[in-house]
Write a structure and sequence with these properties.
alpha/beta, Rossmann fold, six-stranded mixed beta sheet, four-stranded parallel beta sheet, 13 helices, binds pyridoxal-5'-phosphate
């Protein structure tokens, strides 16, 4: 057997992960003073499992684990439900009835906001801008429509951003505005909570402490929260955010700022939260796998995507997750024997193909029909 220790951990994992799922955030259990001060609504089946990817590891010659956040929620999984537990709760707490958010035409964050926001009774408006069209992008466009989102196509990212920052705020004073990717200090709390969850899984020997965790960095809320949560949970590792958006959106200064703002926010609300911070060695950005732009496929990404499908049956897409796994693969090859690596699986694996197929693209608002030609 290639990884005896890993195999033993795997058995322990099966034993440990068959216990009943836990309920509320670890954050509130550890710091009860936060419970009444930080709005939160349950969306996530926690904890999401951690698994050794045996076949993938054997093919790569490195021990690689996965945290299955793709299974985070039965309606739409991936990394967005964790952020929305705090964001939708903020919106409700402020008495808002509608949500406005922004993203590329294939935004998974937009889709999660539509599906989970609509289930909580919010109206949802998406300010969208063009990106390279793929099957995944087309499916998301159909699904926004299937879930009754108001879809507005803007000429460019700049135009969408301007509408988000100015025009729509004037037009819709009663709406709650969620930033791109759900990334601000509230959204980051969702991943801070995930970091605490992962720290508990390591402490409970469900997996070894990873040398590095690979995560897509789009708007940085996921890596920021995760690094903050791991720090708070006492697991010293390195979060590697793999840049998948332009450097203005995915960079280390922004990620560190968001991580430390989230920790400061908690401390302001409850002094029992330890005075810790995330440093530049604990949260780094891989800029080598971005390729020619946001949403543009890379050859290394395509290879990683194939390997994952072949060995573990976990589906990836080209914008976020293929590039992230490609970075992990290259890292494992460059630094053999470094120790266990963890891939955070952030793409929803809920199959919505039937819902999407039920939508005729000709029923979409007219400006979006060109993406089907
Ligand atoms: C599948 C997937 N993974 C990762 C990310 C990146 O998360 P973040 O924007 O928090 O960096 C996104 C963002 O939309 C995503 O859709």
């Amino acid at each position: 057997m290639l990884y005896p220790r890993a195999a033993l951990m795997c058995k322990m994992r099966v034993m440990n992960q068959t216990t009943a799922p836990d309920t509320g955030p670890r954050l509130f259990a550890a710091h009860p003073g936060l419970r009444d001060k930080i709005p939160w609504t349950p969306l996530v089946n926690r904890p999401t499992p951690v698994q050794l990817m045996e076949r993938f590891s054997r093919r790569l010659g490195a021990e690689v684990w996965v945290k299955r956040d793709d299974l985070s929620c039965p309606h739409y999984g991936g990394n967005k439900p964790r952020k929305l537990e705090f964001l939708l709760a903020q919106a409700a707490h402020r008495g808002k009835k509608s949500l406005v958010t922004i993203g590329g035409i294939g935004t998974n964050h937009g889709l999660a906001t539509v599906i989970l926001g609509r289930r909580q009774g919010f109206k949802v408006t998406l300010l969208l801008f063009a990106q390279p069209v793929s099957g995944h992008v087309r499916q998301n466009l159909r699904l926004y429509h299937a879930h009754q989102a108001e879809m507005i196509l803007c000429k460019s990212f700049r135009a969408a951003d301007w509408r988000y920052r100015w025009l729509e705020r004037l037009k819709r004073p009663g709406a709650y505005f969620i930033p791109a990717g759900g990334s601000n200090q509230w959204g980051a709390l969702g991943y801070l909570e995930a970091g605490l969850e992962l720290a508990d899984q390591v402490k409970a020997s469900q997996m070894p402490a990873p040398r590095a965790v690979f995560v897509a960095a789009g708007t940085c809320g996921t890596i920021a929260g995760l690094a903050a949560g791991l720090r708070l949970g006492g697991v010293r590792t390195r979060v590697v955010g793999v840049q998948v958006t332009p450097p203005q959106a995915a960079n280390q200064a922004l990620a560190l700022g968001m991580a430390n703002q989230a920790l400061a926010l908690l401390r302001r609300h409850d002094h029992s939260v330890p005075d810790v911070s995330v440093n530049a060695a604990e949260l780094v950005i891989d800029t080598q796998h971005y390729g020619s732009g946001y949403g543009a496929a890379t050859a290394a990404g395509s290879r990683a995507m194939e390997l994952m499908a072949e060995t573990e049956g976990i589906g990836l897409e080209q914008t976020y997750t293929a590039k992230t796994l490609a970075a992990l693969v290259d890292h494992a090859r460059d630094q053999p024997g470094e120790g266990p690596l963890l891939y955070l699986s952030t793409l929803s694996s809920v199959d919505l193909a039937t819902d999407a197929a039920a939508v005729d693209p000709r029923d979409l608002p007219q400006p979006f029909q060109r993406f089907f030609k």
